[in-house]
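Re: that chain you flagged

S.,

Sorry for the slow reply, it's been a week of failed gels. I finally had a moment to sit down with the sequence you sent. For the record, here it is as I used it:
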Amino acid sequence: MIHAEKDHFDITFMCRLLRVPRSSYYAWTHRAETPTQARRRALAVEVAKEFKNSRQTSGCRRIAAALNRRGTACSVGLVADLMRELGLAAVQPRAYKRTTLPGDAPTPAPDLIGRDFTAEAPGQRLVGDITYLRTGEGWLYLATVIDLATRMVVGWQLAGHMRTSLVIDALAMAIDGGHVAADAIFHSDSEYVEAGVRGRLDPHSDGRDRMLVPGRSRAS
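Prediction finished late last night. Pasting the structure tokens below so you have them in one place:
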């Protein structure tokens, strides 16, 4: 502690406060570095350099293998210890889950918003997407409906599947909440289209009295 704070506080004051003889502190600072300590210090520099070169993606095994290939002998355990001391932790790649599945006979749809993701008033133009989430109990899928005027999520649904009901429930939440105007344009990603949401939610669908016109789906 005294050595770490010597730039901020007087050494004599800290020694007196901690009841440590100054002679003991100076003897500690001038102690000879052992060969083992010198090797660890030099190896720590190489570990940090290799970790940086890997863009923080290599763990102790890959770093140890790279150093050994270059002629710097070291064990995985030693590299792991040094990485802990240096506070280095490999960045894990994001888990990938495929969600876009092509349909048997995809039907083209017109692009009703013309790639213009703006709206003059709420409820007129909406977009949707499905996000996949990895949890401790498996994959979950989040369907969202976003109003282009307010940028607010006006409908959403979470489930462990990508069936039609996931998207329908997200749209129903937006409709039931009064966030969708009659004949509003809904621009969707391909997951929505393949889920069967390409027509209208007409007055005969689940008793609801509003309609959605689908926007164009991006090809996948």
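What I noticed first: Strands lie at 125-135, 138-147, 153-159, 184-188, 212-214.

Talk soon,
D.
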